[in-house]
# Entry
Amino acid sequence: MKLSDNVLTGLYSYDHVVHNYHRGKVTPSPATREVLFSFNEYVGSLFLTVVEKKEVANRVANKLSQLAFGEMDDIVEARILPETLKDFHLVNPENTSVIFFENMDIPNLNKLSLYGPDLTGTSLFDQYTARGDPWYILTKSKKHKHTVGIVRDGSVTIFNTVDKQEYLRYIADEILQLVQLPRKV
# Structure
């Protein structure tokens, strides 16, 4: 682990068994996985970012929660409010090319999506935002120039080729401010 600029970064390493197919046989062998994580303080709250696909990231977050706090549920999944995600899009509408909506108040219709370069300038955008909640956007960051997909559960995919440190910088610069702060108990 390393502490710099009030950010604690580290590698969570664990061993697991992989099954390899070789010449008609499946043989088990050990493998080590290293997962980059960081803890950032933002507005008095501590946020964990795990740089890995969701299933592995959740497993690592649970293990870190258990190690740091003694319980698996002390680290919880991030939440971005629908109105926050909409506002994030409206600050940079010319670079958003995809928006998915959920919780539509249309009978027998749960989710809708809009694709295209001028989403905000359409009557459908106004109708969809009035009748449902944005839950995913695909946009291009003005500051970092990355093409990113952002989900309301805090999952972020950068579609450009970036190293893991740049991914963490992007999360700290643009995503943490979107996350709903935890309620104080």
In short: The radius of gyration is 19 Å. The first helix runs from residue 54 to 69. Strands lie at 2-4, 7-22, 25-42, 45-51, 98-102, 112-115, 133-140, 147-151, 156-158. Helices lie at 54-69, 82-91, 123-131, 164-175.
